[in-house]
Amino acid sequence: MTALCSWLRLPSQLAAVVSHICRLNVFFLFVDMARGQQKIQSQQKNAKKQAEQKKKQGHDQKAAAKAALIYTCTVCRTQMPDPKTFKQHFESKHPKTPLPPELADVQA
Questions:
Q1: Basic and acidic residues composition bias: which ranges (predicted)?
Q2: Contact 14/5 with Cβ under 8 angstroms?
Q3: Is the pLDDT of residue 57 over 90?
């Protein structure tokens, strides 16, 4: 570094400042690299922790049951999981109402 400063004909005080700044830049470069590695490790650790927590939480039965209810009665808005149950419901709860066309060919 001193050779570079003498070649550029910089005063000795300025040369010392330039030398110090160059050392700081190299130091910050290594700190950023170490911090980047630490960040990656932290993200991996957090992802593993989140996966374990999700596995520990288990299966949500209410959400699964609600997703399975795909048929809705047009009269009372009751939800049912399959067309057979839907037809049985319609025949027992709404006997005077005509059967919807989607239930006409369903075997109860």
A1: 49-61, 85-94
A2: yes
A3: no
Concatenated DSSP letters of 41-94: HHHHHHHHHHHHHHHHH---HHHHHHHH--EE-TTT--EESSHHHHHHHHHHH-
Closest CA to 107 of 92, 93, 88, 94: 88
Distance CA 11, CA 14 (A): 5
Q: List b or e across 51-82, with b for residues whose CB sees 16 or more CB atoms inside 10 angstroms.
A: eeeeeeeeeeeeeeeeeeeebebeeeeeebee
Spatial separation of the C-alpha atoms in residues 100 and 95, rounded to whole Å: 12
Decide: helix, strand or coil at residue 104: coil
